[in-house]
Amino acid sequence: MKLLLDTAAFLKTASSATSLPPRVRDLLLHEDNEIYVSIASFWEVVIKYSIGRLALPDTPDRFLHLHREKMGAEILPLDDESVLHVMRLPDIHKDPFDRILICQAIVHGMVLITPDTRIPRYPVRTAW
Questions:
Q1: Phi, psi (5° rounding) for residue 127?
Q2: I want to staple 6 with a disulfide (CB 3.0 to 4.6 A). Which of 50, 64, 85, 114 is the partner?
Q3: Taking the complete model, does pTM exceed 0.85, yes or no?
Q4: How many domains does the chain have?
Q5: At what angle are helices 7-15 and 60-70 packed, to 10 degrees?
Q6: Hey, which residues does 5 pair with through a beta bridge?
Q7: 48-104 pLDDT, tens digit each
Q8: Could you tell me the strand order of the sheet in which 126-127 lies?
Q9: CATH number, domain at 6?
Q10: 3-class secondary-structure state, position 21
Q11: Domain range enclosing 121
């Protein structure tokens, strides 16, 4: 199974994997699952860090790469199909980062790992 961590799930996993729900922990630890983090999540972290809305224990360049490697996650780049799919989404969620993550998960057949309770209202597989 291909798992795409949303930004909140990535940050929560990086800070303390033990505080994740057991189902999410099991999914992340299952050796047959592939874990991905979108480049859009990296972008969101850098923006929030640079405007003072997100505190990190290290600079984003070190923090993001260290924790992505620790969890064995691959970077999911943005692609045109995912970007264009945004036009097909219903207007439930205003956050542009969440909207692109939803589209990436749909287009690439992934399960979106997210604590956001609004996202399951979209036609995307989620877990939390």
A1: -145, 145
A2: 114
A3: yes
A4: 1
A5: 80
A6: 37, 113
A7: 999 999 999 999 999 999 999 999 999 999 999 999 999 999 999 899 999 999 999
A8: 74-76, 34-38, 2-5, 111-113, 126-127
A9: 3.40.50.1010
A10: coil
A11: 2-127
